[in-house]
Amino acid sequence: MKRIRLDKRRKRVNVDGFEMENKVVYNYFAGLPEREREEKFFKAIYIGVLALMEDRLSAFLAKTSNDLGTELESLKMLFDMKREIFYKSAVKGSLAENDILEFLKEHLAERGIKDACELAGTTAGKLPKNKTGDIVCRIDGAPERRIVIECKFDKSIRLGDISERDVFRGGSDTAWSQLLEAQVNRDAHASIIVIDAALADPALEKRVDGISYIPGVGFVAIVDSQRGDYSNLAAAYSLARDIAKNAGSPQFDKDAFRIMLTRILRDARAILETRKLAETIIAGGREMLKRMEQGLLLLEQDQKYFLKLLQNGSLSKDELLEFYLGNEPKEKFSETERQIDSL
Fold first, then answer.
1. What's the pLDDT score for residue 249?
2. Please, what is the Cα angle at 83 between 77 and 87, to 5 degrees?
3. From CA 220, how far away is CA 211, in angstroms rounded?
4. Of 58, 10, 52, nearest to 206 (Cα)?
5. pLDDT tens track of the chain, all 343 residues?
6. Which residue of 19, 157, 185, 241 pairs with 125 in a disulfide if CB–CB is 3.0 to 4.6 A?
7. Is 0.85 surpassed by the pTM of this model?
8. Please, which residues bridge with residue 219 across strands?
9. How far apart are CA 183 and CA 185, in angstroms?
10. How far apart are CA 128 and CA 125, in angstroms?
């Protein structure tokens, strides 16, 4: 019976009933916290495939077998694999940025487009101590119109749609937050986040389907670095360039309105659901009070920015970022939470 099956339609590898007996592998995973084992397992497969593709592993095993013997083979394998893990994770991000930059320059040159693109990920931007925004491209070489590109080749991130975001739980990066943050940090008019297909979150990959535009936020492009396929980035850049070139001050920002309305409806539903719970489950009073206060604080923030939108006709990217992150209601809630816990 075949244990390994290929899903050609979804480009997936399926393994049935996998189990192996290997002291080196067992000792490595035994030394990891349980929550990290699955992530390390998939990373080990990915790195192993890369090593086999480059024929490094086979050359290494031949050398250990001939020169050092069986006893030292495991030690050298661990050392070599740790070096590969370091190279493919810590260094891969910076190498990816260079690959993306090189591709963009060639792509633009072939089409006679005189945009100036440069790396910016090692320098802080407009936000204090913030380096988000790896590549900045100036339209036709002029500083007035800019596109910022954030590369995510070293870890998987979620999409982070505002309709699903809970500002009081977790603080991990999302595609939404990185797009907005990069645009504000590099003072850009359009933003793109580039994600490697090998590390793409399955839920994000399904919703993005290669390339996707989030109105008022930016573009998500999934590329295949192993195959050198950056076609989705090329398409996203072309569209982002049109947006950046035509960026102005609209009379009414429909995209910002849609984002705010989505959040307001989500928060209103959360309050109604919480009030209903409070009427029927007295035992969970403290948690209910917290959630009600969270909802009220969010509505206060919603009202603040909604009035700004009505008065000015649009929101700045700084305001849109702060609205998305929800730092103000989060800070106010800290004191309220302490008071509720003391009841």
1. 60
2. 145
3. 6
4. 10
5. 567 778 777 777 777 777 788 888 888 888 888 888 888 887 888 777 766 665 555 555 555 555 545 545 565 565 555 545 544 554 556 667 888 999 999 999 999 999 999 998 678 888 988 889 999 999 998 888 999 999 988 677 889 888 788 777 766 789 999 999 999 999 999 999 999 888 888 888 888 988 989 988 999 999 988 788 898 999 999 889 988 888 766 566 777 777 877 778 777 777 777 777 776 665 567 777 888 888 888 898 888 888 888 888 888 888 888 888 888 888 888 888 888 777 6
6. 185
7. no
8. 192, 213
9. 6
10. 7
The residue among 47, 39, 80, 42 whose CA lies nearest residue 63 is 80
> CB of 185 within 8 A of CB of 132?
yes
* Closest listed residue to residue 158, CA positions, set 143, 138, 172, 141: 172
Contact 146, 189 (CB under 8 A): yes
Count of all residues that appear for the chain in the document: 343
**218, 240 in Cβ contact below 8 A?**
yes
Locate the DSSP E strands across the chain: 4-7, 12-15, 116-119, 135-138, 146-152, 190-196, 211-214, 218-223
In angstroms, the CA 63 to CA 127 distance is 51
CATH code at 92-245: 3.40.1350
Comparing C-alpha atoms, which of 208, 182, 305, 203 is closest to residue 253?
305
Token reading at 117: 């693109």
Secondary structure letter of residue 125 according to DSSP: -
Say if strands 12-15 and 116-119 run parallel, antiparallel, or are unpaired.
unpaired
Token pair 């991000």: residue: 93
CA dihedral 94, 97, 99, 101 (to 10 degrees): -140
| 263: its two tokens | 């959040």
Q: Tokens 């929101």 label which residue?
A: 315
R_g (Cα) of the chain, nearest Å? 24
Return d(Cα 301, Cα 227) in angstroms, integer.
Answer: 45
State the distance between the two ends of the chain, measured CA to CA, in whole angstroms.
62
Token code pair at residue 34: 């349980």
